[in-house]
Amino acid sequence: MTADxxxxxxxxxxxxxxxxxxxxxxxxEPDPLPSHGGSPGTEAPPVPPxxxxxxxxxxxxxxxxxxxxxxWHGIVLVTGTDTEVGKTVATAAVAAAAQQxxxxxxxxxxxxxxxxxxxxxxxDVITRLAGPETVRTLAEYPEPLAPLAAAKVxxxxxxxxxxxxxxxxxxADKHDLVLVEGAGGLLVPMGLRPSGEPWTFADLATxxxxxxxxxxxxxxxxxNHTALxxxxxxxxxxxxxxxxxxxxxxxxxxxxxxxGELVPHLVGALPSGAGSMDPGVFRRSxxxxxxxxLHGVLDNWRVWAEEAG
Length: 309
Prior knowledge:
With about 300 residues, the chain is of the alpha/beta class. It contains 9 helices and 12 strands.
């Protein structure tokens, strides 16, 4: 498709506050979106402070089996700007693309809540869509609450931070990529430390020394939520990039404007309804939704936007 991106006026991406660039209207005619890697002639965004590369785990990847330092590998955490933003389907997409690239993939869900609802668990969804080599859930709680709250309500043992760390590192010894999917947003209470203090998904990232993928909405309100999450990670020294969890089939002005703001941080964008796809179609399509940093083939956001529009 060769149609232009339907902005009312051309967009120029410039650096702004809260770790996001600012989009301002110009009367001249720049490309509405930059290619992958940034916009020519614009200031680089201040977040993240270094290249999007997760800390390699001491496994086959780190020993040189796939020595592509531009890829996210080893232990990678996946959080969201909120609940129901598409974390699970995005995690499945990254797993599917990595497996197609030849990596051995494990996915860990530290705390699954809401099992009493009877809905498929996140592990069920990831297994169906991506079929990674290993899928583990470390603890399950009946009520659809934050993991620590769900544990208290059910009078079940809360997640211990260092038990989770040990489980993740054990899988990293056997896999090239270990994806760890959180619950809700970055600062949701996940469990308790041995001291009795609550810990969050951000604490898990700093303890493991791993990078973070942030799954965000495409629509109204996402810029503030994404900026807050990236700023919190930046202050903790955690490398982070963004995936849009559900790009609409008929995007409106707000979606295009948000895309222009978020492009410098993006490493992926999934189409709305991706989780309902046939697993075979999902696995073949996943690389096209992700940039090469996540083992995909999406290397030019301007071209992607023209085709998506």
